[in-house]
Automatic annotation (TrEMBL):
InterPro entries: TBL, TBL_C, TBL_N. It holds the Pfam family PMR5N. The chain crosses the membrane at residues 23-40. It is a single-pass membrane protein. It comes from the Eukaryota. Residues 86-138 form the Trichome birefringence-like N-terminal domain. It is found in: Membrane. Belongs to the PC-esterase family. TBL subfamily. Residues 139-428 form the Trichome birefringence-like C-terminal domain. This is Protein trichome birefringence-like 19. Keywords: Membrane, Signal-anchor, Transmembrane, Transmembrane helix. GO terms for molecular function: O-acetyltransferase activity.
Length: 451
C-alpha cells in the first residue's frame, strides 16, 4: 500500500482529483522517507532517488523520433516492462541461481587473464551461482538474442577504465551463445578496440580513459604510493574519446578506482591542488574534488558534441572489498557468499564518491536535456556492495607471479556478479521504449487536464 503511494508520486501531480485520504497517506510516506533518509541513506536512495532520476516521467521529452528507436521490443515483453518501469531494479537482494553461469572459460575466449579466476585455481564456485532480485519486481536473466535484436544496427562504447573493460568482456561472453564479434579496428589493443557483430551490424568499442579527462603519467619515483603520479587536467577533455564518440548510440561511462592514486590537479593550466602527492607548496585537496570535476568535464564534453544523439549510461561506482588492510597493505577479499542488504551499507569514501556521481549526473542530465540528450543511471553500486565474494583475490594470476595488485578486490571474476550489469543494461534498453511511450502519454494527459 505504501509502495503504491510512492509509485504514484509523479502522476499525483498531474491528477488533481486524488481523494484526500491518499494525500494523508502520501504525506506520511514522505515523512517516513525523511526519517529513513536520516538513518539509512541507501534506503533513501533506493526509494526515492533512483525512482525520480530513473523513471523521470516528467522529462519534457526530446524529439518524438527517438521514441521509435526501440519500438522493436517483442509484444509479449510489454507487461513485465510496464511494471519494471515503476520498479527500482537496483534495490534488492542476491538470490541463488542454480542455472548460472551461462558461459565458462572454455566457451568464452574474451575473459581477461586477470579475471579468469577458475584458471588460477579459485577453489569455490558458489560465487557464480546467484542472480539479482529487485525487491519489487523481477529482473530477467540476460537474453543474448533479445539484446542483439534491440541493438541491431546500433553502436555502443565503453568509456572508462579496466572495470569498464571487465563489463564489456562479460557482455561479450554472455552474447557468445549467439555470436562472437570480429575485430574491425586497426588495433587489437584492448584499450581502443572496436568489434562488430556482423549478423546484427552491432558495433562495440572500448575507449580507455581511467580519469575521463586529459591526464598524463609522470615519472615521480619518490611518490608515496610508488605507483606513479598522474597529472589531471580537470577542465580539459580527453580527446582520445571525446573526438570519437559522436556516432555512437550508447555510451557506458564509468570511473572510480584510479582516483585513489597520487594525482596533481591542473585547472586553467596551473596547479590547483593534489591528492596524496606530498609535494611542497601543493595542497592536498582530496580525490573527491577531482572526481566531481572529472564527471563535470566529461558531461560537458558529451553535451557539447555537435552530432551526438545517443543515450549516456552512467555506471555508478562499484566498491572494492579489501579487508584487513588496503591493496598495498596485505588486504584481501576472502568471503565466499554475498551479503544480505541488512548486513552492510555504503559508507565513508564509497558513499561520498557515489553521491558525487549522482549529483554531477543530475546536473549533466539537466544540461543534456536542453539539447535533447538522454542520460540514464546504471546504478550498480548497491548490488556490487553486496558481493565481496566476486573478486579474483589472489586467483587473478599464478601464486609466484610478481604483480602490483596481488590480491585483486577491485575487478570481478568472469563468470561472476558483473554479468548482472548486462541484465540491468538489457532491462534498461527494453524500458527505454516504454519510457518514451509513457512520456508521450503524460504529455497528452497534461494537455487535456490543463485545457
Ligand atoms: C505540463 O504542462 C506545463 C504547462 O504547460 C508544462 O510546463 C509542463 O512541462 C508539462 N509537463 C509535461 C510532463 O509535459
Ligand atoms: C579454465 O578453467 C579450468 C579450471 O576450471 C582450468 O583448468 C583451465 O586451464 C581454464 N582454461 C582456460 C582456457 O582458461
Ligand atoms: C579558471 O578561470 C576561470 C575563468 O577565467 C575562473 O572562473 C575559475 O575560477 C578559474 N579556476 C581556477 C581553479 O583557478
Ligand atoms: C614553495 O614556496 C616557497 C615560498 O613561496 C618558495 O621559496 C619555494 O621555492 C617553493 N617550493 C617549491 C618546490 O616550489
Ligand atoms: C537480515 O535479514 C534476514 C532475513 O530477513 C535475517 O534472517 C537476518 O537475521 C538479518 N540480519 C541482520 C544482521 O540483521
Ligand atoms: C617485482 O617487480 C618489481 C618491479 O618490476 C621489482 O622491483 C621487484 O624486485 C620484483 N620482486 C620480485 C620478488 O621479483
Amino acid at each position: 500500500m505504501e509502495h503504491q503511494a510512492i509509485d504514484e508520486l509523479p502522476s499525483g501531480k498531474i491528477c488533481p482529483q486524488k481523494p484526500p485520504k491518499n494525500f494523508v497517506l502520501l504525506v506520511s510516506v514522505l515523512l517516513l522517507l525523511t526519517i529513513v533518509q536520516l538513518y539509512h541513506p541507501s534506503i533513501f536512495r533506493s526509494l526515492f532517488l533512483s525512482k525520480t532520476i530513473d523513471s523521470n516521467p516528467q522529462v519534457p521529452s526530446t524529439s518524438s523520433s527517438s521514441s521509435s528507436d526501440h519500438s522493436n521490443v517483442q509484444e509479449d515483453d510489454l507487461p513485465s516492462i510496464t511494471s519494471n518501469l515503476k520498479c527500482d531494479i537496483f534495490t534488492g537482494e542476491w538470490v541463488p541461481n542454480p542455472e548460472a553461469p551461462y558461459y565458462t572459460n572454455t566457451t568464452c575466449w574474451a575473459i581477461h587473464e586477470h579475471q579468469n579466476c577458475m584458471k588460477y585455481g579459485r577453489p569455490d564456485a558458489e560465487f557464480m551461482k546467484w542472480k539479482w532480485k529487485p525487491d519489487d519486481c523481477e529482473l530477467p536473466v540476460f537474453n543474448p538474442a533479445q539484446f542483439l535484436e534491440l541493438v541491431r544496427g546500433k553502436s555502443m562504447a565503453f568509456v572508462g577504465d579496466s572495470v569498464g573493460r571487465n563489463q564489456m568482456q562479460s557482455l561479450i561472453c554472455l552474447l557468445s551463445r549467439v555470436e562472437y564479434p570480429i575485430v574491425v579496428s586497426s588495433t587489437e589493443d584492448q584499450r581502443f578496440i572496436r568489434w562488430k557483430y556482423t549478423s546484427y551490424k552491432f558495433t562495440l568499442a572500448a575507449f580507455w580513459t581511467p580519469y575521463l579527462i586529459k591526464s598524463k603519467q609522470v615519472t615521480y619515483t619518490e611518490g608515496p604510493t610508488k605507483n606513479g603520479l598522474f597529472e589531471l587536467y580537470l577542465d580539459e577533455f580527453d580527446e582520445a574519446w571525446t573526438t570519437q564518440i559522436d556516432e555512437f548510440d550508447y555510451i557506458i561511462l564509468s570511473a572510480g578506482h584510479w582516483f585513489f592514486r597520487s594525482m596533481v590537479y591542473y585547472e586553467n593550466q596551473t596547479i590547483s591542488g593534489c591528492n596524496y602527492c606530498l609535494i611542497d607548496n601543493v595542497t592536498d585537496i582530496g580525490k573527491q574534488y577531482a572526481y566531481r570535476k572529472a564527471f563535470r568535464t566529461a558531461f560537458k564534453a558529451i553535451n557539447s558534441l555537435e552530432n551526438f544523439k545517443g543515450i549516456t549510461y552512467i555506471r555508478t561506482f562499484a566498491p572494492s572489498h579489501f579487508e584487513n588492510g588496503m591493496w598495498n597493505e596485505g588486504g584481501n577479499c576472502l568471503r565466499t557468499k554475498p551479503y544480505r542488504s541488512n548486513e552492510t551499507r555504503l559508507e565513508g569514501l564509497d558513499l561520498e564518491l557515489y553521491k558525487i556521481q549522482i549529483e554531477e549526473y543530475r546536473k549533466g542530465e539537466r544540461e543534456g536535456r536542453k539539447k535533447g540528450l538522454k542520460y540514464r543511471l546504471l546504478d550498480t553500486t548497491q548490488a556490487m556492495l553486496l558481493r565481496p565474494d566476486g573478486h579474483p583475490s589472489r586467483y587473478g594470476h599464478w601464486p609466484n607471479e610478481n604483480v602490483t595488485l596481488y590480491n585483486d578486490c577491485v575487478h570481478w571474476c568472469l563468470p561472476g556478479p558483473i554479468d548482472t550489469w548486462s541484465d540491468f543494461l538489457l532491462e534498461m534498453l527494453k524500458m527505454e521504449g516504454m519510457r518514451s511511450a509513457e512520456e508521450k502519454k503524460l504529455r497528452i494527459t497534461n494537455d487535456t487536464t490543463l485545457n
